[in-house]
Amino acid sequence: MSATGKFWLSRVVALLVGVCVLSGMATAADGGYVITNDDSPQGNLQFITNSVTFYSIGANGSLTLQQSVQTGGYGIGGGYFGANRLAVLNGGGQECVFASDAATADIAGIIVNTFSLGGNAMGSTNDTGASNGIGLATNGQYLYASFTDSSNIGTFQIQPNCNLTFIGDITVTGLQGGFVDAMALQGNMLVVTYGDGSIESFNISGVTPVSNGDKQNSTQALSSLGATYPSAVLLTQDGHYAIFGDTATAAYVEVSDVSSGKLTATVPYRSGATISSSNILFSPDESILYISDTQGDRVSAAFFDKTTGKIMPACDSNLLKGYSSSFSYLGGLAVASGTGTGGGLYVGEYGAPAIAMIEVTVKNGKCTMKEAPGSPITDPNGVGLISIGNFMP
Is the peptide bond before 353 cis (omega within 30 degrees of 0)? Predict the structure, then answer.
């Protein structure tokens, strides 16, 4: 497979500005990238260390491998799907991509405009994610890391040139003893999942997370007797809702109203995917929730009402090429554009490793999704391609 692929996201409907939300595609000239944490472990003879790979986004959604930057540490080639191993800072005079190296328990800061390593930082001697990875989240001033093996949340201050200074960590556990999994933050709230059915929020107004005293099992985890548990988590831009993507034998997402400053009982919704929803992503305008069928073979879209928090299934993609023969699981998601419904979708294929490209059309309250011609493209640096994301101008 070539490192570029034709991705005709808006062939006819691009002219329907204001009706179809596929216009406004990001381009390489605009500085839009799809990024990957390649999660390369020690002993991989092809590469010296782990790497972050940047793919420029073409005007038609095509991806071109721009640069691979060595992180100086090592990954593990796997781990929790919900824990995002990438965090992006684009503001305050800095353009950074932070990537976790789970095997060496460090976090690398990549300077985007020079494609160079700014530095590496570590937490305490107890902070480790060597079995299941290290999740990341940032508010632009501080970066938070979920060390999944030690179940610690580490706090780092962001310094010039994408460097980090470790401030401290706290130890957290779920109601059933689960270790910390994924994180998301908005304003003064940090929300985490524990991989045992429980969730919790923290106040970060004082920088170091302090529990809001709302640790609870999700509604679906309770009703399924633990067969479903929240893994991924997102927060809306206004901080009104937390959305959880569940790992399950079906495919559920759950919504909690957090406008009070605390988690409330989650409302579960069954998605159109076939099995598991361990990776989720909002469209830039938050009208669409994209769902990766983590243990299956396709991706889904659901309409999201930002006023009520309600979710309604919208459409599913076709069976993605190479399932079982080339890839085993689907991972993180990224969009082609920083506006509207995202102009198209990318999904990491664990086991290939490759990036599938999905055409998305939204029109008159209906949507369609299908894999684009030329998809997937290989990630030549990838080993355990779970986390992909965007750096947008």
Answer: yes
Both structure tokens of 339: 């506006």
**235-281 pLDDT, tens per residue?**
999 999 999 999 987 778 999 999 999 999 999 998 766 678 899 99
| Amino acid letter, 111 | I
- Does position 21 have pLDDT exceeding 50, yes or no? no
Find the distance separating the first CA and the last CA of the chain, reported in whole Å.
28
Q: Return all residues near 36 (Cβ < 8 A) that are at least 6 apart.
A: 52, 53, 55, 86, 348, 355, 379, 381, 382, 385, 387, 388
Distant-in-sequence, close-in-space partners of 80: CB < 8 Å, separation ≥ 6:
132, 133, 135, 148, 181, 182, 195, 231
Strand order in the sheet with 134-138: 134-138, 142-147, 152-159, 163-171
Cα 137 to chain centroid distance, Å, stands at 10
For residue 23, give both structure tokens.
Answer: 């216009």
Nearest alpha carbon to residue 286 among 305, 261, 267: 305
CA distance 288 to 257: 18
Q: What is the pLDDT of residues 157-208, one digit of tens each?
A: 999 999 999 999 999 999 999 999 999 999 999 999 999 999 999 999 999 9
Domains, the chain, in order of start with CATH, read 13-391 (2.130.10.10)
271 or 283, which is more confident: 283
- Peptide bond before residue 376 is cis, with ω within 30 degrees of 0: yes
| pLDDT band with cut points at 50, 70 and 90 for residue 28 | very low
